[in-house]
Amino acid sequence: MTLLIIISILSLPLTAACYFYSKIKLSVLFALIFVVSNIIFAHGLLYEDYTIFFYLLMVPCVVFPVSCLIAFALDVKYGIFCIDTSFSSIVAWIFTPILLPINLIILYLGN
Amino acid sequence: METKKIFISAGETSGDMHGSNLMREIHKKNPSIKFYGLGRNKMTEAGLQCIRDMSSHSVMWLQALKKIPGLRKIFKDCTRFFDEEKPGLLILIDYVGFNLYLAKAAKKRNIPVMYYISPQLWAHGSWRIKKIKKFVDRMVVVYPFEETFYTNGGVSAKYVGHPLFDELNAKDIDEVLVEKMKAGKDKMVVSLLPGSRKQEIRTLLPILLETATSIHEKIPSVKFLLSCSNKRNLELIEGITKRFASTNNKRLSIEIVTEKISEVIKSSSLCICNSGTVTLEIANYQIPMVACYRVSPFAYFASKPHIDTPYICLVNAIVEREVVPEKTMYRDDYKWLASHATELLLNEEKREACIAGLKEVTSLIGSPGASAKAADEALSMI
For A82, which of B101, B303, B305 is closest by C-beta distance? Predict the structure, then answer.
C-alpha cells in the first residue's frame, strides 16, 4: 500500500512536468501510471464496502476525462470533429488529479 | 447576367467589417450576385440578406457553452437555406468554432467552400489543418506565412494581404485631435490599448494601469491615453480605472479616448497593447510597442504544449523574429511591461531598431487591395 501511495503521489507532478515541457509520450506514460495506481488505490479502499461510491468516483475522474482524451487523440490523428478538441486536456487536468486527494482523504478517515 | 447566390458567414465584429468590404468588392465585379447569410450591421449595410444577426454571438472560452443552443438553431436555419436555395459558394470569415460546421454541411451538399481570414492554426493546434483539408476548398489567407503553412498541409491557399490595410488606407484621420493629444513636441505619450472584448479588458486593463503607474514613477512627464475601442465598453473601462485609482491611492492622470483608436495610436510615442490585430494597426503607423497576452496560470499550463509558434504577437510572427517585446503572461507581470516600455521610450537605438522592424512588417503585408483580391478568388470559385 505504501508503494502504491508513493507511486500515486509522484506520478502526478511527473506527468505535469512532462506535459508542460511537451514530452507528450512520457507524459502519457506517467498519466497512465497515475490513473492505474489511483484506480487500484481507490479499489482497495472503497470497492468492498462502498462499491457504488467507487463507481461514482470513477465516472468523472477516469471514464469522462479518458474518453475526452481518446476523442482528442483520434481527432489529432484523423481530424474527425469540427470542434477544437484540445479542451480535452483541460478536462483531464481538472478532473483526473482530484482522484488522488480523495483517495488520501478516504485513507486518512479510514485510519 | 445570371443571378448567383453567395452564402457568407461572419460571427465577430472584425469579420463583419472584412465581410462587408469583400461583399462590396464582389458587387463591383459582378453586381448580379446576391448575398445571404450571417453577419452584423456592416454586412447588412453592404447588402446582406441576413438570416440571423450575429451581434450577440461573439464569445470566447467557456462563455461559448452558454451559446450552444442558440448556435444550433442558427446552424439548422443555415442548412435549411443550403437545401432550399443551393448557394453557388459559401464564404466563411474566421469564427472557426461555428464556421467549420457550416463548411462540413456545405461540403455534404456539394457547395464550394472558401475560407477567408484563417483561424490561427499556425499558432495553436496545427493538427486541425486536417479538418480544413476535408471541408474547405480554398483558404484565402491574410498573412504570407499562412500560404506556406496551408500549401504544405495539402490545402489550396492564396495570400491576398490583410484587409485591415484597406480600411486604414481609406480612413480619415482626425489630425487636429492627433495634435491635441500629442500635447506638444517634447511630451512623450504612451497609449494603453486593452482590446475590444470585455473579457480581455477585465484581465488586461488592471495590468496596463499598473504599468502606467510604474512608467510614471520613472518618467513623470509622460502623458497617458487609454483607448476605448467601442462605446459599449466605456462604462467597464471607466469603472476599472476608477477602482484602480481609489484602491491604489495613485494619482495618475489618464485620458480615456473612445472610438478613435487610429488617432490614439498616431499621437503616441509608444503603445502598450494585447498581441492581436491591433499590433498591425500600430505597425502601420510605425509606433514602437510592447505587446502582451494575459492568461490564467492554469490556461497557460494547459495550452503550452499546443502552442506551435514562438511568437504570439502578429508583428513578430510575420517577420519571424522579435521586433517588438512580447510576453504571454500567467501573472500580472507589469514590471516586465514597464521596463520594456521605458527602454523603448528612452533608448533611441532600441526605438530606431523597433521602427525599422515595423517598416519591414508593413513592407511585407501593408499594401492595400486584399478585399479586391479575395473577391477575385471568390468569383473564380462560383
Answer: B101
